[in-house]
TrEMBL record:
This is Uncharacterized protein. Residues 1-42, 58-83 are annotated as: Disordered. InterPro entries: DUF1280 (IPR009689). Residues 58-68 have a biased composition (Basic and acidic residues). Signal peptide: none annotated. PANTHER family: PROTEIN CBG23806 (PTHR31424), RING-TYPE DOMAIN-CONTAINING PROTEIN (PTHR31424:SF3). Residues 1-14 have a biased composition (Basic residues). Residues 33-42 have a biased composition (Acidic residues).
């Protein structure tokens, strides 16, 4: 039972309720009204709750937009900061260029003064020449009168004297006489043939010039010397040919539109170092092989000593090439550019090397080392264009081409992008390697990476390969030295004639014959040398007789034996070195085979993602192991253009890695730069766009690859490309691509020739290359690789005539039957016998 208190409470509550009900009833308010008000309050609360909910949602959206705006403001601040940095950099560059322009203006004024002085000196020389001509005419008239007077008063009949050049063989002439004879040949050939260089070289290869009053026979070395002496007339001939064919174009830069731009190219391919030139004013592809003319070649390395010794005369001729005159009489000033890889550029410029203290040919600053150390606001001091100072800022030698200033050394764009692109692809490959080894320990990953990139066997094989190359080069150098000694010895023995008779006089103006042959013979002892002491020649027994006459009388019995023995030893050693070179070449091919097999074995142990990467490369035609784990320029171009396709099959997790994204972004930027600066002149908008792309790429490399080595090629691209583009408004008009292509054509042409003499092979290939230049200058394209003989030209003419007649026959057959019958009768009566005659002549020539 519940307690009584609870009952009392319930009763009280019921009484209170009844009182409240009566009260509400008296006031006219019921319980139903109360319930309705409660329902109304609930609905209003619901609507208020929905409104509050909407307001909260709107506020959340506003907060999200606020956060986005904050992120965008941070990005804009960063962009503004970058733009401020670039503006400061551009301002500093502007100030630098302003000072530079002032210096150039002063230099231009100095050059104008020099030109005025030269004009005055020319006028003075012309005046003196006119005076000398007048004196010569007077002397000639006096001489004529004197001859008539002498003829009248002479008792003996006047014997006619021989006129014209000397009939003496060129081998018997002195050094000065040989040069004079060659100069006479050049002048005579120019009078005979003009600019038709093919006929000139054809006559040179025949080695017979009856127009000189006798037969002049030239050796192969003298032929190549003659070729080099006449090589720069190629420029005049080609310019005239281009103008006559309406293929001459002016430079689309207002300051240089009246100039002829010529590129001097230098590079080593296989064993030969080649010097060539191409012409920029030709309408068509500039970097084509058909636009490049080979003007010099030697077998040896590309260092300064070899270049200065072999190309000294050609370099002097190039330095003197300041104007060219076309066939229409127009004279064009010449601006020369040097084109080659960075090693050739530093050698030609005279630097101590690519790793010296100041290795840049454009400025006097050292390299930054890594991308993270690059300073945007730093302005490099440029090397002066004039004068050319030696032993200054690591410049130990004078420039080979003294007329080409540093600002006209073109950027090696092909090798620059090859270096930067290879660095980016290597970063990409290393990231994929690390991803493949994510379930392995760090030591195993480092071991696998070192096995692929720093393999000891690969290093050992490549080291042996480089040693074999150096040994081959050394042996070839010794062999060439022996060849020069033998040829010099043969020339001197021919010059002195028969040395067996006692009492012959040594007519050598430079000194004793044995003294000139004082050369250390490799692999031989001192007893086989030919030496000459200062006082008296002990070996050749030359004794000085007569202090007044100062003649050396040869007791030539022992000398003749020594010369014969010396020549025999040289020829024996020449054959020994030849056999040794062949053995080294076989060893080199075996090492290359071992290297390829080792690389293939390493490739077979790659991870899954790496194999996918290599398969994608193979789909676009890139197989690294075929090129000893290296890329070519064409490979990098394909990778830059197809980088999205290459990384497509990789796992999504790998594609989202920062290293992969940053490497791909850099390669895409490089592709954009390459497409923007294709072989063309750039307008102002394109130059500004290039500047932005270059700065963006440099910022990206500095942010994501701060520890990657910048190297010499990247330095000259990021530091000096904008300067060259601003002056000459191009970056890839003339690149090293053309001479790289020439190496392949040169080797193919050499293989096609059946001549054993290497010098004669080179001269023939140079002549064929020049013939292709002439054909390309006249026509849009040519496929001729060798010159046609007379019979081949006649056969080609007959075949063309036959084709023309066949076309006429087809036209006649298309008419109505009656006219066709008549026309066929006329063809049978008139044209077919001519065709039969042509065919019979063709068959007769084939039988011959």
């Amino acid at each position: 039972m519940p307690p009584k208190n609870s009952k009392i409470r319930t009763k009280r509550k019921e009484a209170a309720k009844s009182r409240w009900a009566n009260q509400y009833r008296d006031e006219g308010i019921s319980d139903s009204a109360d319930s309705e008000t409660e329902e109304i309050d609930i609905e209003t609360l619901k609507t208020e709750y929905e409104d509050i909910k909407k307001q909260l949602k709107e506020r959340e959206n506003q907060e999200e937009e606020l956060n986005k705006l904050k992120g965008q403001s941070v990005q804009h601040k960063q962009k503004i900061k970058n733009l401020e940095d670039s503006i400061r950099y551009q301002k500093s560059r502007h100030d630098h260029f302003k000072t530079r322009s002032e210096e150039l203006e002063s230099e231009f004024d100095w050059q104008l003064e020099q030109i005025e002085e030269l004009e005055k000196s020319i006028e003075e020389s012309e005046r003196k020449t006119q005076q000398l001509k007048e004196k010569y005419e007077k002397i000639k008239s006096i001489e004529k009168v004197y001859k008539q007077f002498k003829k009248r008063h002479s008792t003996q009949p006047d014997t006619p004297k021989r006129c014209g050049p000397s009939l003496k063989p060129i081998a018997e002439l002195s050094k000065r006489g040989k040069l004079k004879r060659i100069q006479t040949v050049i002048e005579t050939l120019q009078k005979m043939y003009g600019d038709d260089f093919l006929d000139v070289l054809f006559s040179v290869t025949k080695k017979v010039f009856p127009e000189l009053g006798g037969q002049l026979k030239l050796t192969i070395t003298e032929t190549i010397l003659l070729f080099q002496k006449m090589s720069l007339t190629i420029v005049d001939a080609r310019i005239s040919n281009i103008i006559d064919s309406n293929r001459f174009r002016k430079i689309p830069v207002p300051e240089y539109e009246c100039e002829v731009w010529i590129g001097i190219l230098l590079d080593k391919g296989k064993e030969e170092t080649k010097l060539a030139l191409n012409i920029l004013n030709k309408d068509g592809p500039i970097n084509s092989v058909e636009n490049i003319t080979l003007i010099g070649c030697y077998t040896g390395p590309e260092n300064y000593n070899w270049l200065s010794n072999c190309f000294k005369e050609v370099a002097e001729e190039i330095d003197n090439l300041n104007f060219v005159t076309a066939s229409n009489g127009t004279m064009y000033p010449v601006r020369k550019f040097f084109i080659g890889d960075y090693k050739c550029m530093s050698c030609v410029f005279g630097l101590a090397g690519t790793k010296c203290k100041y290795p840049c040919i454009y400025c006097t600053e050292g390299f930054e080392g890594k991308y993270g150390l690059v300073e945007f606001e730093k302005v490099s001091d440029l090397r002066p264009d004039h004068p050319f100072t030696d032993e200054d800022f690591s410049k130990t030698n004078s420039s080979l081409f003294k007329s080409i200033p540093p600002s006209q050394y073109n950027l090696p764009f092909l090798h620059i992008f090859l270096r930067i692109g290879t660095d980016m692809v290597n970063q990409l490959k290393k990231a994929i390697w690390r991803y493949d080894g994510k379930f392995l320990t760090e030591n195993v990953i480092n071991t696998k990476i070192s096995e692929y990139y720093d393999n000891k066997d690969l290093t050992k094989i490549s080291t042996n390969l480089s040693q074999v190359d150096e040994e081959i080069e050394d042996n070839q150098h010794k062999q060439a030295r022996m060849h020069s000694i033998i040829s010099d010895l043969e020339k001197r023995t021919r010059k002195f004639g028969d040395l067996t008779a006692v009492g012959d006089v040594c007519n050598n103006p430079d000194g004793c014959l044995a003294h000139d042959l004082e050369l250390v013979l490799p692999r031989r002892s001192t007893q086989d040398w030919i030496q000459c002491s200062g006082k008296g020649c002990q070996t050749c027994e030359c004794l000085r007789q007569g202090r007044k006459k100062k003649q050396e009388v040869i007791q030539p019995r022992s000398l003749n034996k020594k010369l014969t023995r010396f020549e025999q030893l040289l020829k024996e050693d020449f054959r020994i070195f030849d056999n040794k070179i062949e053995q080294l070449l076989v060893k080199k091919s075996e090492l290359e085979t071992d290297l390829r097999a080792k690389i293939i074995d390493i490739d077979n142990r790659l991870g899954t993602e790496t194999q996918k990467f290599h398969k994608q490369l193979q789909l676009i035609g890139i197989v690294e192991r075929d090129f000893f784990q290296q890329f070519t320029g064409n490979h990098l171009r394909k990778i830059m253009e197809n980088i999205a396709f290459i990384i497509q099959p990789l796992s999504p997790e790998l594609q989202e890695m920062d290293e992969i994204k940053s490497s791909c972004y850099a390669l895409q930027k490089m592709a954009a730069i390459q497409n923007l600066t294709a072989s063309k002149f750039m307008n102002k908008n394109e130059i500004i766009q290039f500047s932005v792309l270059r700065l963006d790429l440099l910022n990206h490399m500095k942010e994501y690859f701060p520890n990657v080595s910048i190297g010499s090629l990247a330095h000259i691209f990021f530091r000096h490309s904008e300067e060259l583009v601003g002056v000459f408004q191009n970056l890839q008009i003339m690149t090293e691509q053309s001479i790289e292509s020439l190496h392949h054509i040169f080797e193919l042409e050499k293989q096609r020739t059946t001549i054993k003499d290497n010098f004669l092979k080179i001269s023939r290939v140079m002549r064929w290359q020049y013939e292709k230049n002439l054909l390309s200058d006249c026509h849009e394209s040519t496929q001729i690789t060798v010159p046609l003989t007379k019979k081949q030209k006649e056969k080609a003419t007959r075949m063309l005539l036959i084709e023309e007649n066949e076309e006429e026959i087809d036209q006649l057959l298309s008419q109505d039957e009656h006219s066709a019958d008549v026309s066929m009768n006329t063809v049978e009566e008139i044209e077919l016998p001519e065709i039969e005659a042509w065919k019979q002549g063709e068959e007769a020539q084939e039988e011959d």
